[in-house]
Amino acid sequence: MDARSYLFVPGDRPERFAKALGTGADAVVIDLEDAVVPAAKLAARDGLRRWLPTVDPARLIVRVNAVGTPWHLEDVEMVRASGVSVMMLPKSDSARQLAEVAARLPSTVRIVALIETVAGVVAMREIAGVPSVARLAFGTVDFCGDAGIEGLGAELDYVRSQMVIESRYAGLAAPIDGVTPELDHLERLTEHVAGARRFGFGGKLCIHPRQVEPVNRGFAPSEDERRWAARVLAACSEHPEGAFAVDGKLVDRPVIERAKKIAEFDTLIH
Questions:
Q1: Is 63 annotated as a binding residue?
Q2: Is 142 among the annotated ligand-binding positions?
Q3: Fold for domain 5-218?
Q4: What is the pTM of this model?
């Protein structure tokens, strides 16, 4: 669950599935929910069921329809029988809801809990503690609609901080930030990725293939960071028991741990 880029693909566009897998996205999310109109949902599910046995599902995630919708239970049953190992649950509102969904799935299937309502934010600690939940994701646009908030930037800082804190408290991977709706504004995307990373997020939802590469790059250590980590770890080996400085700054245990994470990044992601 250390993916950086999560690329959504409409579940009723099977001709795009293989193309999405070829984009370099760390994970491809086949979306049976918002991207598919009600009249097409049954056909989308059936088409996905036929396609899944033809590919390696390792990088695939299925976003099912929300609990309480007419399509939810059969979506979950399709995932259960498919061999897909990760499912995304929209409108994740309570720990009980997540536990009931998890009970219908093999124990090996992990759930990305998409937090996109006020109820989900209020229950976030309990949701993050459900054993089958592997990561939290922020459905920013839907959350703003539910909360009556206008704007996807500083208006959501409180929720982003809470999501990072609760993920860390539950021992989950760093959470996944919401989409950047502007498809032709890669500078805005780059700004959003940098901001999410500063807050402690580890990935981002993508709605177009052109967003994948900037997201992957933005959540990876820069060359300057890699060189800094190498200097810290080299100095650490020379001073195994005492305090020392690198680039004129004191290095202590948290700094050393950060350097180790940067040095291990390529190994972890691949």
A1: yes
A2: yes
A3: TIM Barrel (3.20.20)
A4: 0.89
